[in-house]
Design a protein that fits this description.
Blueprint (H helix, E strand, L loop, with lengths): L2 H9 L7 E4 L9 H16 L3 E4 L13 H12 L25 H10 L3 E4 L22 H9 L5 E4 L6 E6 L3 E6 L7 E3 L7 H11 L4 E5 L6 H11 L5 E5 L2 E2 L15 H6 L4 H9 L14 H7 L10 E2 L2 H14 L2 H15 L5 H8 L8 H10 L18 H16 L6 H15 L3 H13 L8 H8 L1 H15 L4
The structure holds glutamic acid.
Length: about 500
């Protein structure tokens, strides 16, 4: 490529004050650490009124997964982390999928070869498959004529970075401060692979530069490679972005959170009944602290509160119990309308055809996550065999005998209810307790057990009657009475 091409590329670079990018590899799922990186990256851009870019890093074709980019798009959109430039929205410096940019990396690599910062390597892989990468690689010293001869002869090649021998290279990370590595510890990493595609290690530097990225947010697993990236920036004469390396999200003190070990991905958490707002709020707190006691933050409140100073060097432990607590706080704070809408699919699956609004109102304050719903209301759809001991209850002074007595009185009273609604059921049962001169609980306890087969239910006898309807309520009460009388 001639100088003009490089100048042209350079002239297209947007010069925003803050431009960040989330650069996932399409692995087929969005792990929690990925959501967190995306969130912090998005927050930095939004807070500064800057630009948030999505870039798909798919140059490792061996790891190609069908449909993986769609999962990235849908997870980010679902979480509210929308991008200003990216694969499907375009932007001035696209394309944003690295394999679609593949022709522009080689010219830059060749430029480094000309400048003595990279070299063609013709060595084959060692028997065990590992790369060379040591500074004793004989290809480092090949002269230009010999290189050309081998290229002309069609010898397979890769391009490697030529790390200077001796000395050290340092960079500053916004969280970890200054980090320095002896050059002799840095390998001559491959920049362009045998298939002509760039490695991540090369493409990230070229793209971050060409996309005008000002802040690079990524995991600490890249800390040790960053000196090599800095040597590349230096060889090109480019400005280095700000680095923010985030500590890993752990399952426990020893293990990183990982899908392969069965830890949940973003989609798994949604499917498990966690609300996106609660997940995002929780993920924000994994490695970042706003300072102070407050823990509930909406996405827009996070934009306000986010500050790089709150990021922690220590790994964060993913705590499902804490997420569950946050989730229940979010559920409680929802409007009845919003809760009904969120709960509806779960209610319809567990209690088809029943009054979903009534059920939602009964469940709203007693739900840690939406998937708890089925377990709380499955008795509505069908009642299995339950323990008759449930009729015994100290508080309401109920036992089997009193339950027989109460159900015997309740059944004819309930038979006569017409019209059938919450008021008429309520008035009938309360009126009956009065007539029998017993406390309400003494009557309502056995009725509720007969209707539900469980000690704890969302709603009481009246609400459950309303949900079941007259026929089914009576059928359950009669069945209970028969059994208690020993006839069943
Ligand atoms: N593609 C890399 C990853 O998924 C991105 C690292 C970076 O943000 O530079 O880990």
């Amino acid at each position: 490529m001639d100088e003009k091409w490089f100048d042209e590329m350079e002239s297209r670079i947007p010069r925003g004050k803050v431009r960040t990018r989330f650069a996932p590899s399409p692995t087929g799922y969005m792990h929690v650490g990925g959501v967190r990186t995306a969130l912090y990256t998005w927050l930095i851009a939004r807070k500064a009124g800057g630009t948030f870019i999505l870039r798909i890093e798919d140059t490792d074709q061996g790891r190609f997964v069908e449909g993986a980019t769609e999962i990235i798009y849908s997870s980010l959109r679902d979480a509210g982390l929308t991008w200003d430039e990216g694969p499907d929205v375009g932007g001035p410096v696209g394309p944003y999928i690295q394999t679609q940019r593949k022709d522009l990396y080689l010219p830059y690599a060749k430029r480094l070869v000309e400048r003595g910062a990279a070299y063609y390597c013709f060595c084959e892989k060692t028997d065990d498959g590992s790369d060379f990468g040591g500074h004793d690689d004989p290809c480092r010293e090949l002269d230009a004529a010999e290189v050309q001869r081998r290229l002309d002869a069609g010898c397979p090649w890769v391009i490697r970075q030529k790390i200077p021998s001796g000395g050290s290279t340092s960079f500053t990370d916004e969280i970890f401060g200054e980090i320095s590595a002896p050059n002799d510890d840095l390998d001559d990493q491959v920049l362009i692979k045998g298939d002509g595609l760039p490695t991540y290690n090369f493409a990230n530097v070229i793209d971050d530069h060409l996309m005008g990225i000002t802040h690079v947010v990524r995991g600490t697993e890249y800390l040790s490679s960053t000196p090599k990236y800095n040597l590349l920036y230096r060889a090109f004469g480019w400005d280095v972005p700000k680095y923010i390396h985030c500590s890993p999200v752990m399952r426990d003190a020893q293990h990183k959170l990982s899908k392969r070990n069965g830890d949940p991905t973003y989609d798994d958490l949604l499917a498990a009944g966690y609300l996106r707002e609660a997940i995002i709020n929780y993920v924000a707190l994994l490695g970042w602290s706003p300072g102070g006691e407050r823990e509930i933050y909406s996405l827009s409140e996070l934009v306000e509160a986010f500050d790089l100073k709150g990021l922690s060097k220590s790994p964060a432990i993913f705590d499902l119990a804490k997420l569950s607590w946050l989730n229940s706080e979010y559920i409680r704070a929802m409007s009845p309308e919003a809760f009904h809408a969120a709960a509806l699919p779960y209610i319809e699956a567990a209690a088809p055809g029943m009054d979903s609004r009534l059920i939602a109102s009964l469940l709203h304050q007693r739900c840690e996550k939406l998937t708890d719903i089925a377990g709380q209301i499955d008795f509505l759809a069908g009642l299995g065999r339950y323990d008759d001991e449930l009729f015994v209850n100290k508080k309401s002074k109920s036992d089997r005998e009193s339950s027989v007595e109460m159900l015997s009185a309740a059944i004819p009273a309930v038979e006569n209810i017409d019209p059938w609604n919450a008021d008429s059921v309520h008035d009938t049962l309360i009126g009956l307790a009065e007539k029998l001169e017993v406390k309400n609980a003494k009557l309502l306890w056995p009725v509720r057990i007969a209707l539900s087969g469980r000690a704890v239910t969302p709603g009481g006898a009246v609400e459950i009657c309303c949900l079941l309807g007259k026929d089914e309520s009576l059928r359950r009460m009669r069945a209970a009475l028969e059994r208690l009388k020993g006839n069943a």
